[in-house]
From TrEMBL, chain A:
Residues 862-881, 901-919 have a biased composition (Basic and acidic residues). The keyword Membrane applies. It comes from Hevea brasiliensis. Residues 31-493 form the Clathrin/coatomer adaptor adaptin-like N-terminal domain. It holds the Pfam family Adaptin_N. Keywords: Golgi apparatus, Membrane, Protein transport, Repeat, Transport. Part of the AP-3 complex, an adaptor-related complex which seems to be clathrin-associated. The complex is associated with the Golgi region as well as more peripheral structures. It facilitates the budding of vesicles from the Golgi membrane and may be directly involved in trafficking to the vacuole. It also function in maintaining the identity of lytic vacuoles and in regulating the transition between storage and lytic vacuoles. Residues 888-900, 920-932 have a biased composition (Basic residues). This is AP-3 complex subunit delta. PANTHER family: AP-3 COMPLEX SUBUNIT DELTA-1, DELTA ADAPTIN-RELATED.
Automatic annotation (TrEMBL), chain B:
This is AP complex subunit sigma. The lineage of its organism: Eukaryota, Viridiplantae, Streptophyta, Embryophyta, Tracheophyta. InterPro entries: AP1_sigma, AP_complex_ssu, AP_mu_sigma_su, Clathrin_sm-chain_CS, Longin-like_dom_sf. One of its GO terms (biological process) is cytosolic transport. It comes from Hevea brasiliensis (Para rubber tree). Keywords: Cytoplasmic vesicle, Golgi apparatus, Membrane, Protein transport, Transport.
């Protein structure tokens, strides 16, 4: 690259030239840009700062619009800002604030230049430096420049001061110790008369308070004054935001503030302020009935406004208030439901949230019907939003609002068939979850599962695969409720299953295996019964007569079902019916039509062999292994039951496998593992500790609140049984006995099984037809319909009692993991508390505070020590003023009558409090070491709260 | 606080970007691509807010330009709309009925004005007059500095160095 020459300087292209050039290039834009960058690379090396700055400006332009990399020019930018020429400086600062970040290596080189400019006499240079610092400030930069920023906080020029205040936000964020230096001045600025300063400083406090409101409670009186006195909407909005954060922490404060807020709400014409008032009330003042009423009235104005913004915000405000004051939503239900068909997806989404919020036990059926109809008409994205919110609402608190589970399960089935449905995973989880929790719904669940499995069209939709996997699992697990198990096997092995991904095919195979075992087992039972029958026939003919009577009954009941079942033998069935009813009371009806003949069993075995044969060569390990297992088993059984004779061995094997499969799988709490005591000497963490570092960024699929869902249903359930079948069921009895033993020992972690069994089996059959008659799609009718259904009255016509939903003793709550707050934030709030508490306890022990807090992480200690005397001095100066809040606040006395009444008491408590505060302080200080380590400070809070009241009134 | 400010033309061309929160270059391109897709496709009579990755983006269209600002969930959307309008008014006053071309050719000035309006993602100056005055003062400083730099004597000094 040639060195820059005078020619470059004289004939340098300006920014305008570049822009014009770019605008004329239609196609070869990138070629042009790379040519220009080439030029810039040459020009920027020029010793002439003018040339350099123009080159830099061009590069900045290309960076901001075309995202050309400019990190290589970092040093040149620094050269530009060190120019005495203002225009070069400006270009340089712009480039720096655009391109520098924490990892820029030369960033430390600008410290001195920044310091120089911060001290400059030219206010515009100061402003450039401040702007730059606010954008790129790192911890080091902020630490080194804190003294300068501190000085500027008391600058005589408003222009500089307000910028310095803005920068403080960044400085505090990056270097919390700066709080000890700057905070006092910042608080003083709150008292300022200049509106710009107040506006800036309130903005800073708003931002600070949003991270850690508690620390700023002592400043509540200042904010209150601004709330009452200020007429500047920008400022008022920020102050309202601060109060929205503070009010929940201190009920007395809320009481004082609520009236001024309502006053603003009544008075103001500015929608932004109005909305902020509304939002403040609905988020933080929900206990104040009159304020809530007022804001709901204002929300109503927003909702009926033509401006889509206001409509959206009104709906948004409603959705904030919905959990506490549902009546507000119900009052506006017409608007809400009409908005479901709004043009704006945002509005639709908000109204969907509201409609879902209105769902309760009494109207869930109707509203879900309305929503499902809406989802059929809407675009795929919104359709899935609707389905997702139905699903999440219904499964809330372990299906709290669902009474009629048969209805819900068939709704799930219906939702699966909606063309745009992409909620496969969620539906899958719920199907399995409900299956395990709600015993009574299993017959319906199997029916829904069968309908899904049997439809070959569904296999083509990849979004449904997860649902199909759940259906397959459900049908395999609860096959005893199936009317025609053979049909299920046919469905599970139909040719189109080749469209499924291997992981789901394995579930299919496993389910087919379970069903096969069930059929074989039933067949064996039947045979035993026949044998018994033979014996009984010898004894007397009376029972025969009874049997034929019941056989007529059965045949009358279910002729349609029987016609497909080849080789159905009524006689066998009758026998089994009679005898089974004695043996196995519970499942009579289920077994009713499942007569198996030798022929049908052989057919079934052949079918499985035929379907799984090709899969034994599958490239997927799981599929291959499972199909091999099943085939092996089928082979074995075939040999053993040839010629209509079942060998002793075969029946034993079948019995064992069947036992293994009938073991009930219950839901397991996510916390169950934690409850298992860790044996002594077991080092779990030690060797795995560094694993975090290695695979820290590998996100495990977060387990949903309920661990049962897919992992257990699919893989665990299956993998438990696989080894058993592989080793030809020898260990099966062993494993069941192991399970039983485990259950005995850790009974605590199992669900009480009796609870379910005591339930009567007289649950009325499926699908309430009432639920499906609302198919009217007209928006007008929907409003009417929902109007009817949304009425908060309780509908007492629950035809059936709610079935038992199995819950875990400690609830299915995800274990609350204490959120570790950012240490930096914590340091910041610590520092703020120190300063504010230092004020309160007018003991002027700031010296000891600071010396006490010589925490290990103070890198710039020497530097800070320079400032310390200064800050100490300020604390001293402040003392008389801040230490006596009653005198200072006397000018606001006129606002509250009760205040004067209270003041003597308060003074008293002030005096008494002093000694206490001393103690609290020392306690506070004491607890510091601990809190620093844990990054969470209940002690801090405890020590602090008693102090606040002095400031409130 | 305001996380970033974007100006996008109706054709999806970026006219100005200002980032108050740290975003890497890669993220920036991604953000712009995503947002321009969302915002440009929205019809004219819809509301001016878009929920996006846990944030809210407030946008407003002026002629062929979309002004977008990204804010936190609990920030006041209407206030930000006013800030946008405020910025546009100041630009209008500065350029004299501003158009897209003004911003294309004076991109740095648009930045400087924005810098007077916002600092660290917060509004710092709510008076249009003050901003105009400050910008004018800085412009004259720049002008005088430029004149001095481009004087003949300076060039000669440069050449003979």
């Amino acid at each position: 690259m040639a060195s820059p020459s005078l020619m470059d300087t004289l004939f340098q292209r300006t920014l305008d030239d570049i822009i014009k050039g770019l605008r004329h290039q239609q196609a070869g834009e990138s070629a042009f840009i790379s040519k220009v960058v080439e030029e810039i690379r040459r020009e920027i090396k020029s010793t002439d700062l003018h040339t350099k700055s123009i080159a830099l400006q061009k590069l900045t332009y290309l960076n901001s619009i075309y995202f050309i990399d400019m990190s290589w020019a970092a040093f040149h930018a620094i050269e530009c800002i060190s120019s005495p020429n203002f225009s070069h400086k400006k270009v340089g600062y712009l480039a720096i604030s655009m391109s520098f970040n924490e990892s820029t290596s030369v960033i430390l080189l600008i410290t001195n230049q920044l310091r120089k400019d911060l001290k400059s006499n030219n206010e515009f240079e100061v402003s450039l430096a401040l702007d730059c610092l606010s954008r790129i400030g790192t911890a080091d930069l902020c630490r080194d420049l804190t003294p300068e920023v501190f000085t500027l906080l008391s600058s005589s020029k408003v222009f500089v001061r307000k910028k310095a205040i803005g920068v403080v936000l960044r400085v505090f964020g990056k270097y919390p110790d700066a709080v000890r230096v700057c905070f006092k001045r910042l608080v003083e600025c709150l008292d300022g008369t200049d509106p710009q300063i107040v506006s800036a400083v309130v903005g800073v406090f708003c931002e600070l308070a949003s991270k850690d409101p508690r620390s700023y409670l002592p400043l509540a009186p200042e904010f209150y004054r601004i709330l009452v006195d200020s007429r500047n909407n920008w400022v008022l909005i920020k102050v309202l935001k601060i109060f929205a954060k503070l009010a929940p922490l201190e009920p007395r404060l809320a009481k004082r503030v609520v009236e001024p807020i309502c006053e603003h709400m009544r008075r103001t014409g500015a929608k932004s302020l109005m909305f902020e008032c509304i939002r403040t009330v609905v988020t933080s003042f929900t206990d104040y009935e009159s304020a809530v009423k007022l804001s709901v009235a204002k929300i109503r104005d927003f909702l009926v406004d033509d401006d889509p913004n206001l409509k959206y915000l009104g709906l948004h405000a409603l959705s904030i208030i919905a959990p506490n004051h549902l009546w507000a939503v119900l009052e506006n239900k017409e608007v809400v439901i009409k908005s479901l068909s709004d043009d704006d997806p945002n509005v639709k989404l908000e109204s969907l949230r509201l409609v879902v919020a209105m769902v309760s036990e009494s109207n869930v059926v109707e509203i879900c019907r309305v929503l499902v109809n809406y989802s059929l008409k809407s675009d795929p994205e919104f359709c899935n939003e609707i389905l997702g919110s139905i699903l999440s609402k219904c499964c809330q608190n372990v299906y709290e609002i669902i009474v009629d589970f048969d209805w819900y399960v068939s709704l799930l089935g219906e939702m699966s068939r909606i063309p745009h449905c992409q909620k496969g995973e969620e539906i899958e989880n719920q199907l399995i979850d409900i299956g395990m929790r709600v015993k009574d719904v299993r017959p319906e669940l199997v029916r829904v599962g069968r309908d899904l499995l049997i439809d070959p069209a569904l296999l083509g939709n990849s979004f449904l695969h997860r649902i199909l996997s759940a259906a397959a699992w459900v049908c395999g697990e609860y096959v005893e409720f199936s009317r025609k198990p053979v049909e299920l096997v046919e469905a599970l092995l139909q040719p189109r299953t080749s469209l499924l991904p291997p992981s789901i095919r394995t579930v299919y195979i496993q389910s087919a295996f379970k069903i096969l075992i069930f059929c074989l087992h039933s067949y064996l039972l039947q045979r035993e019964n026949i044998a018994d029958d033979m014996a009984s026939e010898m004894l007397g003919l009376k029972s025969q007569g009874e049997c034929s009577g019941s056989s007529a009954l059965v045949a009358g009941k279910a002729p349609a079902r029987q016609e497909q079942d080849e080789g159905f033998n009524p006689r066998d069935s009758n026998k089994s019916y009679e005898d089974l009813s004695i043996i196995n009371e519970g499942d009579v009806s289920a077994l009713l039509e499942k007569g198996f003949t030798h022929e049908s069993i052989v057919n079934l075995l052949n079918l499985i062999e035929l379907a799984l044969g090709p899969l034994s060569g599958s490239p997927d390990v799981e599929v291959q292994e499972r199909s091999k297992n099943v085939l092996g088993f089928v082979d074995l059984i075939k040999q053993e039951i040839s010629n209509g004779f079942v060998s002793e061995r075969a029946s034993k094997i079948i019995d064992m496998v069947h036992d293994a499969f009938t073991e009930e799988l219950g839901p397991v709490s996510v916390n169950a593992q934690e409850k298992v005591p860790i044996p002594d000497g077991l080092m779990l963490k030690e060797s795995l500790a560094d694993l975090d570092a290695i695979c820290g960024n590998v996100q495990l699929p977060s387990s949903i609140s309920f661990s049962m869902g897919s992992p257990f249903g699919e893989s665990v359930g299956a993998s438990v049984s696989i080894p058993q079948s592989k080793e030809e069921s020898e260990p099966s009895s062993e494993s069941t006995s192991l399970l039983a033993e485990h259950r005995k020992r850790h009974g605590l972690y199992y669900l009480p099984s009796e609870k379910n069994e005591t339930l009567a089996n007289d649950y009325p059959p499926a699908n309430d037809p009432k639920s499906s008659d609302n198919t009217n799609d007209d928006a007008q009718d929907l409003v009417k319909l929902a109007d009817k259904s949304l009425l908060p009255k309780r509908r007492s016509n629950h035809a059936k009692p709610r079935p038992v939903v199995v819950k875990l003793d400690e609830g299915d709550v995800v274990p609350f993991i204490a959120k570790k707050s950012d240490t930096r934030d914590d340091l910041l709030s610590d520092a703020v508390r120190d300063i504010l508490l230092g004020n309160v306890a007018k003991t002027a022990s700031s010296q000891s505070i600071i010396s006490d807090k010589s925490s290990s992480k103070r890198k710039g200690k020497e530097k800070l020590n320079v400032d310390l005397p200064e800050s100490r001095e300020i604390l001293g100066v402040e003392k008389p003023d801040l230490g006596n809040p009653s005198s200072r606040r006397s000018k606001h006395r006129s606002h509250g009558k009760e205040k004067s009444r209270k003041s003597p008491e308060k003074k008293n408590s002030d005096e008494i409090g002093d000694g206490e505060k001393e103690k609290q302080k020392s306690r506070h200080r004491h607890g510091r070491h601990k809190t620093k380590q844990r990054a969470e400070g209940p002690l801090n809070v405890a020590a602090q709260t008693p102090v606040i009241p002095d400031f409130l009134l | 606080m305001i996380h970033f400010v974007l100006l996008i033309s109706r054709q999806g061309k970026v006219r100005l970007t200002k980032w108050y929160s740290p975003y890497s270059q890669k993220e920036r391109t991604k953000v712009i691509r995503e947002l321009s897709g969302v915002i440009l496709s929205r019809g004219p009579k819809l509301c001016n807010f878009v929920e996006w990755r846990g944030y809210k983006v407030v946008y407003k269209r002026y002629a062929s330009l979309y002004f977008c600002m990204c804010i936190d969930q609990d920030d006041n959307e209407l206030e930000v709309l006013e800030i946008i309008h405020h910025y546009v008014e100041i630009l209008d006053r500065y350029f004299g009925s501003v158009c897209e071309l003004d911003l294309i050719f004076n991109f740095h000035k648009a930045y400087y004005i924005l810098d007077e309006l916002l600092i660290a993602g917060e509004l710092q100056e709510s008076s249009k007059k003050t901003v105009a005055r400050l910008i004018a003062a800085q412009d004259s400083l720049v002008e005088s500095a430029k004149e001095q730099a481009s004087s003949i004597s300076n060039i000669i000094a440069q050449a003979t160095k």
